[in-house]
Design goal:
This protein is mostly helical and 150 residues long. Helices cover 64% and strands 11% of the residues. It has helices spanning 3-25, 31-43, 48-55, 59-71, 93-110, 119-139, and strands at residues 46-47, 75-80, 83-91. A three-stranded antiparallel β-sheet has the order 1-3-2. Helix 1 packs across helix 5 (93-110), helix 2 (31-43) crosses helix 5 and helix 3 packs across helix 4 (59-71).
Length: 150
Amino acid sequence: MDRARDLESIIVAAHALTRVAALETRNEAPAAQWRTLAILRERGPLRIGELARLSRITQPGVTRLIGGMADAGLVAREPDPDDSRAVRVAATERGEQAYAAWRVQLVEALLPRFADLSDSEWQALRTSAELLTQRMADARPADGEESSAR
């Protein structure tokens, strides 16, 4: 297999992994909610437009999503210190706790599928996860900057 196909296999497997985990947890929250909390956890408070861009959903869609998440106490709107006319969205403590609990649910749902892995297979997964995490952190575009192919 060439490198492009190896990377493609990882992307497809990661997508299947998260989809199966989400289905097996039977969690009713939309995936966009968890993605939004993950972005806010990583980036801190953001304007709606930036959150929409990073989430890859429309601004009206993010506005509706944030409305429901705010009603549930998962996020809060706060004044933008750089523009008094704008607001930013931030994860609340309740949102952070919900996100952490969801991640535990995902792991618990999938762990039985990996119970028979050997120590060396676990090490291969650990190494792969560390490498992917590092590469994605390095590839993260700066605020307001579009990502580009490397």
